[in-house]
Specification:
7 strands, seven-stranded antiparallel beta sheet, 29% helix, 177 residues, alpha+beta
Length: 177
């Protein structure tokens, strides 16, 4: 994987996520799926909680990096709706919050598609934790599963170089390129 474009949340949203995880007793969590050929510890400390908007492989970097200069970010809101668990790479489990977008999300995605041709994400979610320790993930899921859905303001997008080293490359906000 070359780069990933992810949501940034405003301070209130970050506080909501932190409070939810704290109330569920989740102190540390891995946000990067296995099999991505990245240093998971560095990646997890570099990447904030986010919704992945799009990603691409190294071989497509030049195309996407050039065309992102024509992308116009549109602020929007998403709802963290409920917790769920799915099987993931290398016999791991992935705990995530299902995300429901508002109309503004589609405006943002239309702008991104126009600039780059990027398709909508496979499924909108916020990874909370990934582990090969199934008991840990199921315990975390049980602690989260009854949370009250809440809204998150998407205040920008952040572009990360996703192979070693994981690092922030650029951010996109209203009236920025």
């Amino acid at each position: 994987m070359g780069h990933t474009l992810v949501t940034e949340f405003d301070e209130e949203g970050i506080r909501k996520i932190s409070n939810l995880l704290r109330s569920a007793g989740i102190r540390t969590a891995n946000k990067i799926p296995f099999g991505r050929n990245t240093d998971r510890e560095i990646a997890n400390s570099a990447l904030p909680y986010h919704v992945t908007v799009t990603h691409w492989g190294k071989q497509e970097d030049d195309y996407y990096l050039e065309n992102l200069n024509h992308f116009q970010f549109y602020p929007c809101t998403v709802k963290a709706d409920h917790a769920a668990v799915i099987s993931a790479a290398e016999n791991s489990l992935l705990l995530y919050l299902e995300i429901v977008p508002d109309k503004g999300w589609q405006n943002m995605m239309n702008s991104l598609h126009e600039a780059t041709g990027a398709a909508d994400p496979f499924f909108l979610h916020m990874t909370i934790s990934v582990s090969k320790n199934h008991s840990l993930i199921l315990d975390q899921y049980n602690a989260l599963k009854g949370f009250e859905p809440f809204l998150l303001n998407v205040s920008g997008l952040a572009l990360y170089h996703i192979w070693n080293p994981v690092k922030l490359v650029k951010t996109f906000h209203t009236n920025e390129n």
